[in-house]
Amino acid sequence: MSPALPDGDAAPEDGALPASVRDGAHDRALGVYLHVPFCTVRCGYCDFNTYTATELGGGASQASYASTALSEIALGARVLRDAGLPPRAVSTVFVGGGTPTVLPARDLAAMLDGIRDAWGLTPDAEVTTEANPDSVTPESLAALAAAGFTRVSFGMQSAVPHVLATLERTHDPRRIPDVVRWAQDAGLRVSLDLIYGTPGESVGDWRASLDAVLAAGVDHVSAYALVVETGTRMAVQVRRGELALPTEDDLAAKYELADELLTAAGLGWYEVSNWARTDADRCRHNLAYWRGDDWWGVGPGAHSHVGGVRWWNVKHPRAYADRLARGLSPAAGRETVADDAAQLERVMLGVRLAEGLGLGALSDAARGRVAGLVADGLVDGRAALGADGERRVLLTQRGRLLADAVVRTLTD
């Protein structure tokens, strides 16, 4: 089961936004996240809001999903216009899931066309879809590129069969070089997404996965430590003693190995869990989240943020489709982010970036603690002194491993 939606205020049935969202809108980019809640199977570690094809029917089915999502896209355009926001073309689109590419390429293209019709796309718009390696063909990738997609993010997770089996992933790791080549031949940028810390994964296994990534010749890599969420099948296995979680030292060693090998291959970190070969290879959509821009989240359970107002849609695809069919917003609740919460998020997200966080964003008390973080080897001393310009909190490699502790120090 995916996690419960957050608590919040009731959302208006028409989705109307307060006038406050107009403040500073000219300085914020607009992105769209589009959630496709379908997978062929549900992996044992996954707690995302996903469903298999046989679980849903009617207006919530895979066949009707594109039409339903287009209804929310049209609603979103009306809501932003009625709120008095300036016209802004969408600069990034990210289609996630689930496995978006279980839908036909024509459906993904239709939803992108709907976004283009509703808001417009900037000339250099980044348009990404997630995909599983076993859910694409050369033809489907070429069709996505022709429709305007510019990037694909493959959920590789591991190159080692027994690790994939523990995660209950179904793809053949030998397929990775093929799908990367197909995507690149279609003109798409490619990211490979990895998970480290799977029960039973050795450091040698992890090195094999990193070597496979580098051999594939991609220009972007994401690597996240496995988090075993309550309510998943894997959580039950851990609780029963069937699987043993790795130690913190094991996770740290694997992160350090990833950073070492990726950096040596010319991919620099730009966010704690993300590496790219050049600035152009960075995921601009995720950077928009980390920098506090606006985005509209389409789909069941999707979250949105516009001008300090955050809301989230009903989770179940049937409830989502029903509300839209009745002309209602699918939002289940919303909140206006308070100043103290906004400051916490600004610090929490800003320090994770390789550009660092300017000391001016910190309270006087927090600025006084930066010297201690430098002494502990968690923050780069030259950046904190402003050796290259603005004084910044810039994490060292050790600081990246202890980023949560740095954030607590700067916000308590």
Automatic annotation (TrEMBL):
Its main location: cytoplasm. GO terms for biological process: porphyrin-containing compound biosynthetic process. Coiled coil: none annotated. PROSITE patterns: RADICAL_SAM (PS51918). Gene3D superfamilies: Aldolase class I. Residues 24-271 form the Radical SAM core domain. Keywords: 4Fe-4S, Chaperone, Cytoplasm, Heme, Iron, Iron-sulfur, Metal-binding, S-adenosyl-L-methionine. The keyword Iron applies. GO terms for cellular component: cytoplasm. CDD domains: Radical_SAM (cd01335). The keyword Cytoplasm applies. GO terms for molecular function: 4 iron, 4 sulfur cluster binding; coproporphyrinogen oxidase activity; metal ion binding. It is found in: Cytoplasm. Belongs to the anaerobic coproporphyrinogen-III oxidase family. HemW subfamily. PANTHER family: COPROPORPHYRINIGEN III OXIDASE (PTHR13932), RADICAL S-ADENOSYL METHIONINE DOMAIN-CONTAINING PROTEIN 1, MITOCHONDRIAL (PTHR13932:SF5). Probably acts as a heme chaperone, transferring heme to an unknown acceptor. Binds one molecule of heme per monomer, possibly covalently. Binds 1 [4Fe-4S] cluster. The cluster is coordinated with 3 cysteines and an exchangeable S-adenosyl-L-methionine. This is Heme chaperone HemW.
